[in-house]
Every structure is written in structure tokens, then in C-alpha cells.
């Protein structure tokens, strides 16, 4: 049920701040009430649901504090991992740089939802690859939990071609520094990118 809930967040079927019952969640996921209760506990632990005593179950609201905390955690992990990505994943960095340039060019010529979805996929890949370069399951698990929070934040933002192009351009700058082997520059550009992304999220909250 956890993955089902997460996918419904990504699709926008479940909205931040929305109230749901155990029965509704169980029905959505096609599981028993017992299984739903176990999943609800995990979702609440990961700050994706809030259980109000005698008040129902609420999908976490996207507040400014929620955004700041998610991005602060993201910075801690990704800035710590960027050195490893530069050193240990040069082929991944080069491949991703070429893919990002290609998608950015496509986004300039075609603003369809399909192109935006492709751009978002490439966007997430950079952050995923940075963390994967550490080859640390504990960090990866923590990152994935926070990634769900970040996707919940993103579901609250109306994306457009301009926003997507701006983010991809920032990614290209980060990847160019990675390909050049300049971990210091890559770290600085990544930090600037995450600060901008947080500001965009707060503006859209």
C-alpha cells in the first residue's frame, strides 16, 4: 500500500491537506483494513500522513516549514555525495549531460506534457545518480523517503516550460563541472540550484 499511496501522490489523485479514512485508503489500494493500518503507521512515520486523534487521517500539507525541512535534508545528502559522483561516476555524468542537453532542446521546441514529463524524468535522474554514487543503502533509503516528500511538494507546483528549462539549464551547469572533474564548482552549482528550487517551491506553496 505504501507504494500505491506514493504513486497516487505523484499523480495528484491524493492532494496535500486532503482528509481520508482508513477504509478509503484500504479501498484505493485494494488491501485489508489491517494492512492499511500498518501502512498508515509507516506513512505517518515518514511524515506523509498526519493522524489526528478523533479527527481523521490527513495527507500532509505542503507548508513553508515542510518545504524548508525537505530541502535542508536534501542539501545535506546531495552536497555530501557530489564529490563521490564527480570522482566515481564520470561516465554517468557525461551520459546524463548529453541527455539533459537533448531534453532541454526538445523542451524549447515542444511544450507538450509528454516533453515536460521527459524533462522531469531527466531532472530526477541527476539527483538520484548523485546519491547512488555513494553506494550506501542507508543513505539511499533516507533519500527515497525524502524524495517522496519532494514529489509531494512538486505536485503542489504548476509546472511550465519556462520553469523546466530553467531547472535543466542549472543541471547542465552542474554536470559540466562534474564532467570537468571540478567537485568544488559542482558543489557550488548544486547548492545554488537547490536554493533556487526551494524558492520556486515556496513561491508555489
Description:
The structure is a single chain. This protein has 205 residues and is mainly alpha-helical. The chain has helices at 2-11, 22-29, 33-45, 64-88, 90-109, 113-132, 137-154, 161-179, 183-204; strands spanning 19-20, 49-52, 56-59. A three-stranded antiparallel β-sheet has the order 1-3-2. Strand 2 and strand 3 form a beta hairpin. The longest helix has 25 residues, at 64-88. The chain starts with a helix and ends with a helix. The model has no long low-confidence stretch (mean pLDDT 88).
* Overall morphology: globular
User: What is the SS-derived class?
Assistant: mainly alpha
Low-confidence stretches: none
Strands of the biggest beta sheet: in what spatial order?
A: 1-3-2
Characterize the largest beta sheet: strand count, sense, and whether it forms a barrel: 3 strands, antiparallel
* CA-atom Rg in angstroms: 18 Å
User: What is the average per-residue confidence, as pLDDT, rounded to a whole number?
Assistant: 88
List keywords for this structure.
205 residues; 3-stranded antiparallel beta sheet; 3 strands
Layout: helices, strands, pairs:
Elements: H1 2-11, E1 19-20, H2 22-29, H3 33-45, E2 49-52, E3 56-59, H4 64-88, H5 90-109, H6 113-132, H7 137-154, H8 161-179, H9 183-204
Antiparallel strand pairs: 1-3, 2-3
Helix pairs in contact: 2-3, 4-6, 4-7, 4-9, 5-6, 5-8, 6-8, 8-9
